[in-house]
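Anyone able to model this chain together with 2'-deoxy-thymidine-beta-L-rhamnose?
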Amino acid sequence: MPGLTWDVYCRVVDNLGDAGVCWRLAVNLAQRSQRVRLVIDDPAPLAFMAPEGAAAVQVLPWPGPTEAGDVVVEAFGCELPAATVAGMAATAQGALAPVWLNLEYLSAEAYVERSHGLPSPQPSGLRKWFFYPGFTRRTGGLLREEGLLARRAAFDRSAWLHAQGLELQPGERVVTLFCYDNPALPALMRSLAEEPTLLLLTPGWAQALVQQALAAGGALPGPPPPGLRLHRLPWLSQDDFDHLLWAGDLNFVRGEDSPVRALWAGAPFVWQAYPQHDGAHAAKVQALLQGLQLPTDVQALWWAWNGLASATAPFPGLPALGAGWQQAQQQASLALTAQPDLASQLLAFVALQRQATC
Ligand code: TRH
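re: yes, here you go
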């Protein structure tokens, strides 16, 4: 499709996923010859995620441009500024109205297929479309840049680790940790320490929890258990965050964007869902586990890591990373790479809507 102007609206509610997903979407669209204006109320996380920005992506403060582009993406139901909606409605009187999409949260649950692509008539007379990312062909798919898998195939792990000031010791495996608050962390550290492990800790919860566990009075007071080598990372750019996951033999990820990156990394991973007080995250974990068809011992680990196993059950041991887990993970990732990615699907959807209103 010839280059259109896309306005992506993003409000940062908490954590990094809102900015992270919107930035990736912007980059994905720009890679496909689109012009993107990312309107974001808190651009601070972009300073480390994308320190160099990206060609064809303009970052604008909220409430954004006075005149809407050809496509307006409201990320995660963030509610567009009233003036933007009024402007879009006025345009619709005379010319082609902008295509208005609400990009929803990612989930593997069944409602996603039912809701993807549904229209929602608005009081302004405009129509908004629900666009659901997802893991099956009847959803909007997952963000995946062109050329990503080729870049991953050419990745040199030793060189990347060396650039971080790290050399792997003989027989050592690499485990990466990006998580929320998690009472199972000390048990996981004990499990990891059973084999030589370099544990790479992202800033935030992962580093804080490990520090807490090792502090006097913590669950593992004293030095890290033998076998476990700890390394605290700085905030990485999104590209370098990919490299981190490509370097991992096992990746612990959380939220929305990092599990997708872990899928493209192709190595075994464990997902911590964004914890919800009403326990709604259990259905999300269940749905993704079902979609990925991981072995039962891996499923037990996912449940325990999400605090969803029986309170009296001991933390399950770490399943072997080779054989079953690796194979199941690679099969799932491969099947997903065969599906059209989210940006391609957005382009096709928008082209169809524009044709229909011509
Ligand atoms: O930060 P998150 O927990 O974001 C969450 C989820 O999106 C969740 O669904 C949503 O409800 C909540 O926010 C509001 O995890 P996520 O989605 O993996 O986003 C992390 C982003 O941060 C991702 O784009 C990768 C990026 N990142 C870096 O760029 N550098 C880093 O060093 C790290 C640790 C992360």
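Residues 342-357 form the longest helix (16 residues).
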